[in-house]
Amino acid sequence: METIVVALGGNAIKQADEIGTNEEQFKNVGIACESIFKLIKEGYKVVITHGNGPQSGNLMVQQDLGTDVVPPMPMDVVGAMTQGQIGYMIQRTLQNILKKNNLDMPVATVVTQVVVSKDDPDFKDPSKPVGNFFTEEEAKKIVFEKGYILDPKPGQEHIDKKMKGHVIKKVKPTANKPYRRVVPSPDPVRPAEASAIKKLVDSQVIVIASGGGGIPVVEDRNGILIGIDGVIDKDKAGERLAEAVKADIFLVLTDVDAAYLNYGTSEQKQVRKMTVAEAKNYMKEGHFLAGSMGPKVLACIRFIEEAKGKRAIITSLDKTEDALNGNAGTTITP
Amino acid sequence: METIVVALGGNAIKQADEIGTNEEQFKNVGIACESIFKLIKEGYKVVITHGNGPQSGNLMVQQDLGTDVVPPMPMDVVGAMTQGQIGYMIQRTLQNILKKNNLDMPVATVVTQVVVSKDDPDFKDPSKPVGNFFTEEEAKKIVFEKGYILDPKPGQEHIDKKMKGHVIKKVKPTANKPYRRVVPSPDPVRPAEASAIKKLVDSQVIVIASGGGGIPVVEDRNGILIGIDGVIDKDKAGERLAEAVKADIFLVLTDVDAAYLNYGTSEQKQVRKMTVAEAKNYMKEGHFLAGSMGPKVLACIRFIEEAKGKRAIITSLDKTEDALNGNAGTTITP
């Protein structure tokens, strides 16, 4: 019985053209869970992880608007809240599909912290824009009122002792609102709840874990966990989850059906299969974009190299079955 | 090795005189977890549940203020979000205390739905006020804009097919803002994730579950789970959790140190020990108030009668150890 870790892309929960009502999100989760159910029916032990970008963005907007009456929570807590939210949506939906199919299997969401190194270079030079865009005037107001730092030089010390990064950067060269809050996106090391998750997987429980890339925490020198303001890439964190549960297959679901060479040009060509060496080569040649396919391919490479996984697959939700059979998507092998 | 389910009161996370900043909540959770750690050190297998009143209240206020830009989530999802939030706070805090004491034990939060009966009488006559208070004018505006029902007669049909109760009631006879939203507070039947939780407890994992009384769901006639707008009493839900993990002891922590006869009068007298029969008698005599000590005593009675538990204890956080030794608090026995 092979164990498969499925990393659901953001569009599996909220489509780009939706505002993100409860009904919309449950509808999308329903479609995603029908695909996942096929894996369960085929006998795979399934572990699910997912993004949380739109949900944490929405929550931070609500927090901002209510800031005069309710104290806003920092990003680690926001991450935890969206894990509860999306975990519940997936869990209930999957339980109902199993029930309809007369399959009696437990499903549970584990609130998951993901440990990152406090020496991660991203703490010195945050890379992940989050939340609303601001005009220069608005940006300066936030800097004045909240003590944020405006456009720090790379390496300049701007993360306080509590690892709270409060940085506003000009993220677009032009436009009316070019400023945005930027937070660290450190590399995940391991899920803090690895052993509990592994116990559940070993007991035939379908587990949802490490949502939104996990709640970002650093360890101090005594091993004490401290929550930080940051966002961990959910595919990289999903790979660490796959390591923790000793998965055979790591399945990255996104909005394109495969990895492409020369993506977006007239020469674009789907990659059906590549070895780790080939994938590294394509990476070097710049075929996979930093903000999109790049981290997914990197996570897949890691899964093969560091987690000693059998194969990693990148595809879209509707191609899941075909991709597992090698007839769609991109498969990365040793 | 005895299993103990600890139900943390709201004041273990947010004190009444606090606004509920992240720092305040982590400070309070720290105090609560130091008490819980003593139980772990004494060799108890610990399962933790907790309230979420102030957190869900705060989140609903933020949702209301942001309603023009972000679609608000219904109460089942709000409950799930606060489970992530508070679960993370307790989990990380307890992990850090264990680490400081060189104890290597996993801690994990399980997002928990609690099933209630769709025929629960509270769906016909909602009893739990939630959120802000309104003037008559504001109440009428909400009724007009959102289709809520104003002061329905008991039994009048006002829960729609999706089990969303949208009722505004005059909850105070006088005062400038006497109106408030009122939702059902149905009786918990069982945690939907019982088997996953039990597996973790059996594997020596310290589990946090059923937070805020659990995410309220009903089963349709085919066993399909549907989320509802409602609030389940966290002590009653904690008792169902104790049943699910076959706990020996059910420990209800609150802001008074014990149950009292004639509470609040010059005759008030602490009850150190009572049998189920005695407890029922005191209940009948009206010693335990409906909104406060009543449901706690009821949950304890159930724990002995239905879960066949050894003993149930009601006390305050600081008296935990003494109460376990019978030197403080109120112990309910068969």
Strand content of chain A: 15-25%
Q: Give the overall silhouette of chain A.
A: globular
Radius of gyration of chain A: 20 Å
Strand order of the largest sheet of chain A: 3-10-2-1-13-17-18-16
Low-pLDDT ranges of chain A? none
Strand runs of chain A, count:
18
H and E order of chain A: EHEHHEEEHEEEEHEEEHEEEEHHEHE
Largest sheet of chain A: 8 strands, mixed
The CATH class of the largest domain in chain A, by name, is Alpha Beta
Oligomer: homodimer
**CATH topology term of the largest domain in chain A:** Carbamate kinase
What gap, in angstroms, lies between the N and C termini of chain A?
Answer: 20 Å
What would you say the CATH architecture of the largest domain in chain A is? 3-Layer(aba) Sandwich
Number of distinct helices of chain A: 9
The CATH homologous superfamily of the largest domain in chain A is named Acetylglutamate kinase-like
Structural class of chain A: alpha/beta
Tally of individual domains of chain A: 2
**Which pair of chains forms the biggest interface, and how many residues does each contribute?**
A-B, 57 and 57 residues
- Helix coverage percent of chain A: 25-40%
